[in-house]
UniProtKB/TrEMBL annotation, chain A:
One of its GO terms (molecular function) is CoA-transferase activity. It comes from the Bacteria. It comes from Nonlabens ulvanivorans (Persicivirga ulvanivorans). InterPro entries: 3-oxoacid_CoA-transf_A, CoA_trans_fam_I, NagB/RpiA_transferase-like. This is 3-oxoacid CoA-transferase subunit A.
Automatic annotation (TrEMBL), chain B:
InterPro entries: 3-oxoacid_CoA-transf_B (IPR012791), CoA_trans_fam_I (IPR004165), CoA_transf_AS (IPR004164), NagB/RpiA_transferase-like (IPR037171). The lineage of its organism: Bacteria, Pseudomonadati, Bacteroidota, Flavobacteriia, Flavobacteriales. It comes from the Bacteria. The keyword Ribonucleoprotein does not apply. Belongs to the 3-oxoacid CoA-transferase subunit B family. It comes from Nonlabens ulvanivorans. SUPFAM superfamilies: NagB/RpiA/CoA transferase-like (SSF100950). Pfam families: CoA_trans. One of its GO terms (molecular function) is CoA-transferase activity. This is 3-oxoacid CoA-transferase subunit B. Keywords: Transferase.
């Protein structure tokens, strides 16, 4: 067994520097690497490019890095629900590259899988296609999209083991599995870290080979963005 | 004129037995409440769930189980979770039978705009561009006019596009229309709304063939 565990979040983030590009897992606030984000805030590094489907909310998730003006550029598909983000974007302080959600996921997966580029129909005929190669396949136009290149990927799973194997829960899975192994160094944080041999190999969602460093998060707030319920009859 | 609930109710009649359906945020989400009893349908949410159920009972919300609108949800028997790449594989690979989404503008050639108002609102396209580029069967749920009374069914979209030549059907608070090579074909009108009213509220080419029946909701 190759042991991927690190003893602390500080050790997990060793090597992060200003100007780097990070992938950050999660959809909305679900499945975000809360502990890694909190530690990134502490490091005070700046001029970051973050690839993440969303940008958190004002006081949680990537919103915390935005508050400290640590992010120079966001690459996302949807950035509503964040006033500080909107303010920085409209004032020109923050660069924003909005791309289709499926393309975002696939550009991560391509990086993970060693595919430099691919064609997709998403965005053809829109602003997203500007400056990109267009080619017809089966009579339909597609645009060329490239794999991302990132220095670190920060992902969050439900359970993990010392070998770096990961299991996700519910829709907190989202972008985490496709970002694992898609950057030079992948840091996985988990709610529960168990000894190798504890998890059933049949149930592993992401094999440890895609994870460089793994640690158990000190605590998880797991904030709910839109609490919707129904009444009992 | 139909309410938003009634638009959803009318669209629900387009949902057929055995369909996998992706519902967008807003009016489309309401469609789930009106699917006819006795047919089997599974709802897909692009953040990674198939077999979405109703909202949870109070106290049973789970931060790890949400829909694309970030609302807490439940799952039904037969449900599954998957990652974002597989989710869009389902969409791009045309495994989803029906896509229902909202729009700011639809043009007579099937173009749609729903993600950006330059200088005003830039929230992003989310999964909408992937959905409209790949789905064969797309229904748009929208209001026929904006608050100022101007038509949202246009000759050409004025806002940045989400997709080109992709919308096949539109259900508004005034009418049901197919989008064809020649323009919007009027199929049904809302109760109490005349063909003349619809013509006046439609900037794009509106094709009226024979008697246009009133919607049954």
């Amino acid at each position: 067994m190759i042991n991927r565990t690190v003893s602390s979040v500080e050790e997990a983030l060793e090597g992060v520097k200003s100007g780097m590009t990070f992938m950050v897992g999660g959809f909305g606030l679900s499945g975000i690497p809360e502990n890694s984000i909190a530690q990134l805030v502490k490091t005070g590094i700046t001029d970051l490019t973050c690839i993440s489907n969303n940008a958190g909310v004002d006081d949680f998730g990537l919103g915390l890095l935005l508050q400290g003006k640590q992010i120079k550029k966001m690459i996302s598909s949807y950035v509503g629900e964040n006033d500080e983000f909107e303010r920085q974007m409209l004032s020109g302080e923050l660069e924003v590259d909005l791309i289709p959600q499926g393309t975002l996921a696939e550009r991560c997966r391509a990086a993970q899988a060693g595919i430099p580029a691919f064609f997709t129909p998403a965005g053809y005929g829109t602003e997203v296609a500007e400056g990109k190669e267009v080619r017809d396949f089966n009579g339909k136009p597609h645009i060329l999209e490239h794999a991302f290149q990132a220095d670190f990927a920060f992902v969050k799973a439900w359970k993990g083991d010392e070998a770096g194997n990961l299991i996700f829960k519910g829709t907190a899975r989202n972008f985490n599995p496709v970002m694992a192994g898609a950057a030079t160094i992948t840091v996985a944080e988990v709610e529960e870290l168990v000894p190798a041999g504890t998890l059933d190999p049949n149930q592993i969602h992401i094999p440890g080979i895609f994870v460089k460093r793994i640690f158990q998060g000190a605590k998880y707030e797991k904030r709910i963005e839109q609490r919707t319920v129904r009444q009992r009859d | 004129m139909l309410t938003k609930e009634q638009i959803a109710q009318r669209i629900a009649k387009e949902v057929k037995d055995g369909y996998y359906v992706n519902l967008g945020i807003g009016i489309p989400t309401l469609v789930a409440n009106y699917v006819p009893k006795g047919i089997d349908v599974e709802f897909q949410s692009e953040n990674g769930v198939l077999g979405m159920g109703p909202f949870p009972f109070e106290g049973e919300e789970d931060a790890d189980v949400i829909n694309a609108g970030k609302q807490t949800i439940t799952t039904l028997p037969g449900a599954s979770f998957f990652d974002s790449s597989m989710s869009f594989g389902m969409i791009r690979g045309q495994h989803v039978d029906l896509t229902i989404l909202g729009a700011m503008e639809v043009a007579e050639n099937g173009d749609i705009a729903n993600w950006k108002i330059p200088g005003k609102m830039v929230k992003g396209m989310g999964g909408a561009m992937d959905l409209v580029a790949s789905a064969e069967n797309i229904i748009v749920a929208m209001m026929h006019t904006n608050r100022a009374g101007a038509s949202k069914l246009l000759k050409r979209c004025s806002l940045p596009l989400t997709g080109v030549n992709c919308i096949t059907k539109v259900v508004t608070n005034m009418a049901v229309m197919d989008v064809t090579d020649k323009g919007f074909v009027l199929l049904e009108r809302a109760p109490g709304v005349s063909v003349e009213d619809i013509k006046a509220a439609t900037e794009g080419n509106l094709i009226v063939e024979g008697e246009v029946p009133e919607m049954v909701i």
